Amino acid sequence: MTFLEAVLLGVVQGLFMFLPVSSTAHLVITQHLLIQNGSGMPLPESPEMILFDLVVHVGTLVSIVVVFYKSLRVFLTRIWSEALAIASNGGEATSGSLFLKLAMMGLLTVFVTGVLGLTFKALFEQVFATPAILAVTLTITGILLWLTDRLPARRIGLRGIGPRIAVTVGIAQALSLMPGLSRSGMTICFSLFSGLKRRWAAEYSFLVAFPTILAATLVQSVEVFTGLGLGGVSVLAMVTGFVVAAAVGAVALKLVLILLYRAQLKIFSFYLWGLAAFVAFGFLDHIYGV
Q1: DSSP letters of the chain?
Q2: Residue 175, exposed/middle/buried by CB under 10 A (0-12, 13-18, 19+)?
Q3: CA distance 125 to 178
Q4: Which of 104, 113, 132, 159 shows the greatest Cβ crowding within 10 Å of its Cβ?
């Protein structure tokens, strides 16, 4: 992988990470197009390229910190103060321990994602090399986005986030390991379907992204470095993709929040359906050798 290819893929990840159109699908398509045009990078389904995809996902976590800095600071500060209050109360939780409860629900979400993700990891990775399935997953994401904009006002706030919503979001996040099913799109949609207000659906989705993406990157790193190593993907390429994705992602995140709050996610449905049609009708066939 060249420096310019790493920059391009970092831009793709940063741009599409928070837009609910599946950044992984766009990375896969871009990688195949580059290979078709003579790139020597490994195939998208190879362990080292899946690790690269995860590394640029970690880069976009920096974007979340930039955009949600105040919310994250309040969240971490309140967790600390609530933990101290419980410790001084003999280990007994109080009714005001909202942020500790949210942290526990976040861990439950990540646990559900981890169990399902590890169970179906091999199956999910097959989508990286199967354009027909990619067309289906892109279409599904478009349908879900369309439906969420037609929902009436949601009623559940932060205090209403319990095991039901946590498990639902965990399942959605596990499904989004398949290219074409957007992580942000799936988790926000399933949160909205569960009754969570739009603002909290977004913030909860991006909160659980941290441990989920970091854990997936760790698991994939172990697989790569206990196998054949990075191969055609250098450390410089990884770092370059990380930095570019972080910079571009901050702008994309602000855009998607504006559209989410205004219930305008359906505009991405048309884009996804168009992209799915290109894939379904053979746009990528020559790339995959069909």
Answers
A1: --HHHHHHHHHHHHHHTTTTT-HHHHHHHHHHHHHHTT--PPPTTSHHHHHHHHHHHHHHHHHHHHHTHHHHHHHHHHHHHHHHHHHHTTT---TT-HHHHHHHHHHHHHHHHHHHHHHTHHHHHHGGG-HHHHHHHHHHHHHHHHHHTTS----B-GGG--HHHHHHHHHHHHHTTSTTS-HHHHHHHHHHHTTB-HHHHHHHHHHHHHHHHHHHHHHHHHHHHTTT-STT--HHHHHHHHHHHHHHHHHHHHHHHHHHHTT-TTHHHHHHHHHHHHHHTTTTHHHHT-
A2: buried
A3: 7
A4: 113
Which tens digits make up the pLDDT trace of 209-249?
Answer: 888 888 878 877 877 777 666 667 888 988 999 999 999 98
Tokens of 278: 């290109």
Please name every residue paired with 156 in a beta bridge, in sequence order, or none if there are none: 196
Q: What is the pLDDT of residues 76-125, one digit of tens each?
A: 888 888 888 777 776 665 556 788 888 899 999 999 998 998 888 777 76
User: Which two three-digit tokens encode residue 72?
Assistant: 């994250």
Q: Which amino acid is at 64?
A: I
Q: Report d(CA 142, CA 273) in Å as an integer.
A: 6
Q: Is the dihedral of CA 41, 44, 47, 49 positive or negative?
A: positive
